């Protein structure tokens, strides 16, 4: 293999690379500003929408697809799938497992909440994540913003996230969560309803509705 390269050609190449990156920096910075602005608006829109409910599909890598329904209001949520029902009132979480007729009670961490409530990802950019505006503009027939978030913190379960946010409602329609290696989860959200009004008790386990369930306190 001939490795001889004329010095002038090499110098020209490195000059091009340096100039390319210098000109690219303002574009990258602008895209991060735009991405953060979109996430600010999406987070604010969610907070102002009152109670929200929607259907979702979770597709984990190399695992069975899970379909469910979620109801959210402020920091509270109520989630149902065919394998579990979960309530969270902002502090305490109850998870009912029909197959075992038991309810596990816990005070979940932020990471545990993120694994259940996809809306929690809207505020990750406020922490140790950088964000960029992507190029995708359409998802399932709707105009969207594509926002990617990345972190170099290997302690985080998800290092890369991709969100599609509806340009009209500013509600998220799609999440792709990538961990180390090939591990990823995809969440798609549909059939939004906004302006719902639930009492606080709606997000807490009611033992009268599950009289035969064994309650296991893990706190």
Which features would summarize this protein structure in a list?
alpha+beta; 219 residues; outer membrane lipoprotein receptor (LolB), chain A; 13-stranded mixed β-sheet; 13 strands; disordered N terminus
Largest sheet: 13 strands, mixed
Q: Give the terminus-to-terminus CA distance.
A: 66 Å
Which word captures the global form? globular
- The fraction of residues assigned to DSSP E strands is 35-45%
What's the β-strand tally? Answer: 13
List the total number of helices: 2
| Count of all domains | 1
In N-to-C order, the SSE pattern is: HEEEEEEHEEEEEEE
In the CATH hierarchy, what is the architecture at level 2? Clam
CATH C-level category: Mainly Beta
Per CATH, the superfamily is: Lipoprotein localisation LolA/LolB/LppX
Category by helix and strand content: alpha+beta
Low confidence ranges: 1-28
On the 0 to 100 scale, the average pLDDT is 80
**What's the helical proportion of residues?**
10-25%
Rg of Cα set? 22 Å
Kindly report the CATH topology: outer membrane lipoprotein receptor (LolB), chain A
Concise structural overview:
The chain is of the alpha+beta class and 219 residues long. It has helices at 7-48, 110-116, and strands at 51-60, 66-73, 76-81, 85-88, 93-97, 102-106, 130-133, 138-139, 142-150, 160-166, 172-178, 184-196, 214-217.
Describe what this molecule looks like in 3D:
The structure is a single chain. The protein is α+β, with helices and mostly antiparallel strands. The protein has a single domain (9-92, 109-207), classed as Lipoprotein localisation LolA/LolB/LppX (outer membrane lipoprotein receptor (LolB), chain A). Helices cover 22% and strands 38% of the residues. It is built from two helices and 13 strands, in the order αββββββαβββββββ. Strands 1, 2, 3, 4, 5, 6, 7, 8, 9, 10, 11, 12 and 13 form a 13-stranded mixed beta sheet that branches. β2 (66-73) and β3 (76-81) form a beta hairpin. The longest helix is centred in the first third of the chain and has 42 residues, at 7-48.
């Amino acid at each position: 293999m001939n490795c001889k390269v004329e010095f002038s050609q090499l110098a020209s190449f490195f000059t091009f690379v340096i100039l390319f990156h210098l000109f690219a920096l303002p574009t990258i910075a602008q895209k991060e500003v735009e991405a953060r602005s979109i996430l600010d608006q999406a987070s604010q829109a969610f907070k102002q929408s009152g109670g929200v409910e929607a259907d979702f599909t979770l597709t984990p890598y190399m695992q069975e697809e899970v379909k469910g329904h979620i109801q959210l209001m402020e920091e509270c949520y109520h989630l149902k799938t065919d394998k579990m029902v979960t309530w969270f009132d902002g502090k305490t979480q109850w998870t009912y497992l029909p197959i075992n007729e038991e309810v596990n009670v816990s005070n979940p961490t932020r990471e545990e909440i993120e694994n259940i409530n996809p809306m929690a990802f809207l505020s990750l950019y406020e922490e140790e994540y950088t964000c960029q505006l992507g190029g995708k503009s359409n998802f399932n027939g709707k105009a969207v913003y594509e926002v990617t978030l990345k972190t170099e913190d290997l302690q985080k379960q998800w290092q890369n996230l991709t969100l599609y946010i509806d340009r009209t409602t500013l509600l998220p329609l799609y999440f792709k969560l990538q961990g180390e290696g090939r591990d990823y989860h995809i969440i798609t959200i549909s059939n939004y309803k906004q302006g719902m009004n639930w009492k606080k008790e709606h997000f807490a386990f009611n033992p009268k509705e599950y009289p035969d369930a064994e309650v296991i306190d893990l706190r």
